[in-house]
Structure of Septin-type G domain-containing protein:
Amino acid sequence: MDPLRRSPSPCSSRPSSPRTPPCEMLGYVGIEAVLDQLKIKAMKMGFEFNIMVVGQSGLGKSTMVNTLFKSKIWNCTPLDLGQGPVPQTLQLHSVTHVIEEKGVKLKLTVTDTPGFGDQINNDKCWDPILGYINGQYEQYLQEEILITRQRHIPDTRVHCCVYFVPPTGHCLRPLDIEFLQRLCRTVNVVPVIARADSLTIEERENFRQRIQHNLKTHCIDVYPQKCFDEDINDRILNSKIRVGGRGGQGG
Ligand SMILES: Nc1nc2c(ncn2[C@@H]2O[C@H](COP(=O)(O)OP(=O)(O)OP(=O)(O)O)[C@@H](O)[C@H]2O)c(=O)[nH]1
């Protein structure tokens, strides 16, 4: 499944194609080999996955990424920050690693957005983040429409944005709502309750339900969106995610 929303979207209305009846085969052709060929090609090329983490400082973004991929993904001293004090303005930075498991390579890029929502005036604090996401779409599109385009276009588009909700135990803050409304129009958003272990199980469950209610009231369509429900298996899995909705990242 390609989680990108800008890739040909299943949400877009398209005419239902008439079913093509299967052709009766009179002997062995070797179509099954296509599967192996595709597998070998995919193994050689590897996969690209770009994840963005958004949230205030200290909510456990780096910890979650490292835990998720069981690696030290996060580089503690990002190269682009240089020497001296960290500037007050919002800084986005990405780290890329190739991780390999059983011969399958994954080029993982994690983009961090330190200090989001930390300022006194958070007006338009989402602009650099949305600008970055849209910039990656634009870059990919420009490569794609070239007459002599590369055989493999490096994919820097953000496939998933993990949004860290502070564990207030109340509901989404106006800042979260404002930002999520914009974010979910652009990218797949996965909200998580940060440092969920600081809440009791009951508090966490109530908080999760209130967040889900807020999301619904404010028309915030997080992942998995309805448009990913085309296939029956996907639909079952997506329903489980929606109902069960993992309440938080835990400790
Ligand atoms: N209790 C608890 N502590 C956590 C959790 N995740 C991370 N921490 C701790 O919180 C502190 C900050 O974690 P980081 O992962 O550096 O947080 P961050 O969001 O990446 O912070 P910045 O790099 O400043 O943006 C560390 O001391 C972690 O050990 C969690 O789920 N529960």
